Amino acid sequence: MKLELIFSLILSFSAGIYCLERPRGVSIEKAAFYQGSTTFRCLSDGKSIPLEHVNDDYCDCADGSDEPGTSACSNGLFYCENKSIKGSYIMSSRVNDGICDCCDGSDEYDGTISCENLCEKMLAEIRAQQEALREKQEAGYKVKLEYIQTGRRTKDEKLSQLTELSKEKDLLDKEKDILKAAKEEAEAPEKVAKDKHEQAWEAVKAERKKRQETEAASLAFLDLDVNQDGRVDFPEIIRHPEFDIDSDGTVSEEEAREYLEEREEVDLETFTEKIWPNVKEIYKPYGSIQEETKEEKKDEAPAPPEVPEEADPLEQVAEEDRMPDYDDETKRLMAIADEARQKYDEADKKVKDIDNEINNIKKYLDLDLGPEEEFSVLKGQCFEYTDREYTYKFCPYEKTSQKPKGGGIETNLGVWGHWHGPEGDKYDSMKYENGQSCWNGPNRSCHVKIHCGSENALTGASEPSRCEYQFEFTTPARCSQPQDTHPHEEL
């Protein structure tokens, strides 16, 4: 019984204290500091002053806490009650300064001016803004739910495709291996037949070349053998200026002997075998010897062979160098091998195509498209925003870029990197990196802020710092479910 009486007295005492009127400019949270005692302690240093000195228009406390309702202290704070909406603080120096700072006008109480109570009007505006935001979130969230369904369905389809493609690839790999073995089996006899044909042709060409070299050597020998005695000696070599080794304008006996490999003279066989390989690159037959030699040889030396005017030498050479067609048996083996190669190539292409499909699906599945796949609808789309100078482009999960409004080259501002929001809300923004490098600067990058909106739209672009860009993008995928469809009467 005694305990109940004591508890009742305590409650009555406490209620009495809190029913005391708060000093002007004091918030409910700080009311206890100004009530229940005959003294007041300054809030910052604990200095005691009589309670009646509070709001006496004289600054006693260093922190101005004794004058919350007057302008006596420049560093004091006045609490605006602002009934109906949230209370707020203003500097005490603005109390009774002729300007209405509190929406309820409580800061101008000396009668100098009359302040209209605008709190209800502000409350109505805040409610309208909240309602507009709620409606936007609600509309966006409805679309987001559709995005989630689409994203999940797309992911399920991709997973199903991946399973089917993997099975199909296994079958194609086996088929490819079989066709590869058949191709190699068909190519083996083809190679033997073709090698035999080509080796025979190489032998023909080698024999032809040898014959041509012999004929060229014979013609050169006849040209050098001025006296037609069947031998070429060093006096006959001296007649040809191309044998001038030291380029002094004459061919010496020593130089001539050097070309004859220190022999006095050589016959046609020795010339062809020993001398011709060393001189054929520098020797100029028919008309290259000195003028007097030409006169001497005019009636003796045989004329150089002439090619009939109607024949084209290049065509003759090309025709001679063309390998004859393969024989019928080789052609048959080649046709069999060609068919085997074609079948293998078709199988190989199918495997490569299915590999590309599988890789593309895996890349898609590796993307972070949101906790509920809600951002999947943005994949494959691009959005643009144009200001006074540039047209900016944003392709989610791919790249960002800018292009001069009047036309010109598109500049890469960065390619998809990762989600870049703060801890606990990583889907707040995206980071695009490794864009085109700036002049004497780093590679460009772009930070894309993601906001809730009723539609997908790029709404702004800026360059907060050199080579670092920021885009503003709205999308229903960013909208969350409205938490309260009925705002409180008092905010």
Task: Summarize the structure in words.
With 491 residues, the protein is α+β, with helices and mostly antiparallel strands. Helix content is 41%, strand content 15%. It has helices at residues 2-19, 119-224, 234-238, 253-259, 268-279, 291-297, 313-321, 328-366, and strands at 39-41, 48-50, 77-80, 88-91, 232-233, 265-266, 383-386, 390-395, 399-404, 411-419, 429-433, 445-452, 457-465, 468-475. Strands 7-8-9-10-11-12-14-13 form an eight-stranded mixed beta sheet. Strands 1-2 form a two-stranded antiparallel ribbon. Strands 3-4 form a two-stranded antiparallel sheet. A hairpin with a 3-residue loop joins strand 7 and strand 8 (390-395). Helix 2 (119-224) packs antiparallel against helix 5 and helix 2 (119-224) packs antiparallel against helix 8. It is elongated, with a radius of gyration of 51 Å. Residues 1-19, 287-298 and 485-491 have low confidence and may be disordered.
